[in-house]
Amino acid sequence: MTFPLLFGSTTLQIVGTVVGVIILVVAGMLALFSRFYRKVGPDAALVRSGVGNLFVVTGKGMLVIPVLHRVEEMDISLKRIEIFRKGDSGLICRDNIRADIEVAFFVRVNNTVDDIQNVAQSIGCGRASQRDKLIELFDAKFSEALKTVGKHFDFVELYNERDKFKEEILKVIGTDLNGYVLDDCAIDYLEQTTLEHMNPQNILDAEGIKKITELTSREHILSNDIEREKEKTIKKQDVEAREAILELERQQIEAEQKQEREIVQVTARESSAGIQVQNEERLKAERARIATDEEVAIAEENKMRQVIVAMRNKERTDQVELERVARDQQLEATERERAVTLAQIDKEKAVEVEKRNIQEVIRERVIVERGVVEEQERIKDTHEFATADRSKKVTLTDAERDAQEKLVKDVQAAEAEKQASQLQADTVVIRAEAQRQSADKETQATKMLAEAKQADQAASGLADVQVQIARADATEQQGTAEATVTEKKAVAVARGREANAVAIQKEGSAEALVMRQKFSSDAAGIKEKANAMKLFDGVGREHEEFKLRLNKTKDIEIAGIEAQKDIADAQATIVGEALKQARIDIVGGETTFFDRIVDSVKAGKSIDRLVHNSETLTDVKNTFFNGNPDYFRDKVQQLVEEFDLSTDDVKDLSIAALIAKLLGLTKADETRSELQRLLGMAQSIGLADRQVSTLNLGKETSESAN
Questions:
Q1: Helices (H), 162-202
Q2: What integer is the mean pLDDT of 373-388?
């Protein structure tokens, strides 16, 4: 019985162990399955590579063994790709107007196994899920599509036909994009590119700028026309309304005035009876009031008379004070004018001093320029002398060469003796040339001393000295030439005698050589003399012309100074005789004072001549002056008294103003004619602007009364 029991418990243990192992294996397998099984949602896809073919699932799961497989997740949800074209990169339309545009493209991976595998193989799962990478992939394609489609639309059509524009974009791009699908596109922003971002040097932009300017100008003109038409319509309506209102107001006023006239007529008829009674009562009252007013007026007149007397006293006091202030102001103005005049005199003196300084500078400059001209003439003389010397040497050299050639041909035996004679002759010539140059140096030194002395002498003797120097130079040159000729003659004679002593048989040849040299020397001397005479003629002529110009200028200046001196003496004599007894403050320059005095005398003489030659002015003189200085004053006094005016009333008036006032007070034609004639005479003789107070009206009367 024991053995079966033991067997039964062992069996249970084995079964339990097996069951536990099975459960453990199943649990391990479940754990491994859950570990190696990958799942994704509907917006993603799993791509498995490794053992077996490429396997793709979406919205499901798959078993992935790490050692055997590799799995990547790909995002296949919809992506938004935005393309911007703005500014100078804006979209160019068919009418060459550039547009700023922003288009959003909606792209996703096509949810098919083949497309997902294609994208995974060409792009990669990681890059296919990144939006930036997608923009890099499709930016060029989408931009090219925008440019292609945009060129088929005008700018305005882009606004009006957006759906068609979008359809054309989708048609150009297509829906299949190597595994991707373009679901839709939307235009987020569309505006015209501003003119500042357009390049006028670009052909397309230039055409666009022209069209934009043309369209905007046309629309602006149309808008302005509409605005002006609106203003005209409104203004017309306002005018019509105002006219209607004014017409109604006129009708209203006419009706009111008509009613008022009717009321007045009725009132007048009703009150006409009582008015007569009222007039009678008013007449009585007026008589009483007039009597009262007369008494009041008499009292008021007395009061006003007293007030006027007080006011005139005050005015007289004020006038005295005003005259004192005016006199002080005139004194101050006179003092200022005196100071200004003195300053002007000082200024003119300074200007005259500067003018004299300028004349001195000009005079010194003329002296320097004259010295420069003289130095240039001396340089020309030296050049001409050197040219003559060179010509002379060339002539002598040519003559010697010809003589040597002749001697070689004719006298072969006497060649050594001839050369010795030639050397001696050259020595003599060199010595004579040195003596001549020494004489030239001495002559130049003498000339420089003469020029130094000449600078200290008067300008009038400059030309004569230079002419004499030129003549001395010419004489010296002529003497030098003659000395050279004589010297050559002596050399030729010596040479002939020596040749005769050495070889009498060659006497004819030697004489021929001597004669040839003599004639050559004579020709050279004559040429130098002619050149010297030519030089003398040019220098003499230039110096003679300079002397004549200098003498002419000096004579003119001396004559002008003498004329000014005579004029000044005559002016001084005239002014001294005319103003011998006058006390005058002289203000002005050298001739200003005299000119003013002469002008004053001229004006006085003109007035005297006018009076003597005019019958009207003679009548004025005889009538108002009549040989009596007080006649004109008495005449004015008489007119003032005739019009009951006081001297205090008219003393501040001018004579013209007084006569005008009298013309206003009188109505008699005879008196008015006399006053008008008096006014014309006063204007003719220059008395119209003088004050009446200068006539001292009433002075004699007051003195007689005293």
A1: 162-173
A2: 76
